[in-house]
């Protein structure tokens, strides 16, 4: 017997047995434009897009063949991404150019984050998105762009100072991003509570660990876990499962293949999709609003 979920006011409702779900359809609770999900579906879809569900209550709803399960207690549900090959490459290039030009940085950053989040699928959170605006922290992005030129000042300690300031600015950006994540157009009550000192410390440790050639990958893995532990306002805990070894060998393959230029678009998507999939949601047993 199929179990169905539907989205209402940015929250996941369900599961409902098929018979009860049909009643919700007939009562108008589930409308043609309501996003619904059942096991076997690749993602959330409008009810009207599923043959036999709307206007065909006498027949069982058709269940698509591909997909993954909704969030279940005690299991980790990974995030997924459907980045297109040239879509990700093109936007990454524009993002880098926008940061180097400094003035367009806030607009380019928001444009980039909106596209990225719209292509990430979060279990139980349909239409994942981003609501930040360019003028929210415009000066942070412009300062970030300006700091890329620190090494050209001729001042010996300028790059080190720029690195510390960049770390602090990155901390501000991650807090801003977390506060502006949305589902079905509504902001999620999420916040990043990691301290500025802690974030800057991890940033500098990652920078220093590059001396070891390979140690940076393990620092990155632990840093991601620290970030996840400091995400609050979620009913489900955000976890990062990637290991240092996995990050290392994938980065090596990415770098090696990209040296041939032509494979860059495909390697960028391969790496990006894998990285997103290492973040997952796990039930923490609390009943809060959020993810």
Description:
With 291 residues, the protein is of the alpha+beta class. It folds into two domains: 1-70, Dna Ligase, domain 1 (2-Layer Sandwich); 76-283, no CATH class. 44% of the residues lie in helices and 16% in strands. The chain is built from nine helices and 14 strands. The strands form five sheets. The protein has a four-stranded antiparallel beta sheet with strand order 2-1-3-4. The chain has a three-stranded antiparallel beta sheet with strand order 5-14-13. It has a three-stranded antiparallel beta sheet with strand order 8-9-10. The longest helix is centred in the middle third of the chain and has 22 residues, at 158-179. The protein is elongated. This is GYF domain-containing protein. Keywords: Membrane, Transmembrane, Transmembrane helix. Pfam families: GYF_2. InterPro entries: GYF_2.
């Amino acid at each position: 017997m199929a179990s169905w979920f539907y989205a209402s006011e940015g929250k996941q409702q369900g599961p409902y047995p098929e018979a009860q779900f049909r009643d919700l359809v007939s009562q108008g609770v589930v409308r043609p434009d309501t996003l619904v999900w059942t096991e076997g579906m690749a993602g959330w879809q409008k009810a009207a897009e599923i043959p036999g569900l709307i206007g065909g209550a006498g027949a069982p709803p058709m269940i698509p063949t591909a997909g993954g399960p909704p969030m279940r207690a005690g299991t980790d549900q990974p995030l997924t991404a459907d980045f297109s090959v040239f879509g990700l490459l093109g936007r990454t290039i524009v993002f880098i150019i926008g940061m180097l030009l400094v003035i367009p940085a806030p607009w380019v950053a928001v444009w980039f984050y909106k596209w990225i989040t719209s292509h990430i699928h979060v279990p139980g959170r349909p239409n994942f998105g981003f609501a930040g605006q360019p003028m929210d922290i415009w000066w942070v992005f412009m300062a970030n762009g300006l700091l890329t030129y620190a090494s050209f000042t001729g001042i010996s300690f300028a790059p080190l100072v720029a690195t510390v300031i960049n770390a602090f600015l990155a901390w501000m950006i991650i807090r801003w991003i977390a506060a502006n994540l949305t589902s079905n157009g509504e902001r999620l009550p999420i916040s990043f509570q990691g301290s500025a000192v802690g974030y800057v410390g991890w940033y500098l440790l990652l920078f220093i660990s590059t001396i070891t050639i390979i140690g940076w990958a393990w620092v990155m893995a632990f840093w991601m876990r620290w970030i996840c532990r400091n995400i609050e306002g979620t009913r489900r805990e955000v976890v990062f499962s990637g290991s240092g070894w996995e990050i290392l060998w994938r980065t090596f393959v990415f770098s090696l293949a990209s040296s041939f230029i032509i494979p860059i678009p495909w390697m960028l998507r391969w790496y990006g999709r894998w990285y997103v999939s290492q973040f997952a949601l796990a039930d923490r047993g609390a009943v809060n609003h959020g993810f």
